[in-house]
Amino acid sequence: MQDAQLLKGILEGCVLGVIAGGETYGYEILSELEKAGLSEVREGTLYPVLTRLDKNGYIQCRKAKSPLGPIRKYYTITLTGKKHLEEFKKNYRRVTESADRILAQRCRNSGKEADIVGVHIHDGTA
Question: Residues 76, 23: contact at Cβ < 8 Å?
Answer without folding.
Answer: yes
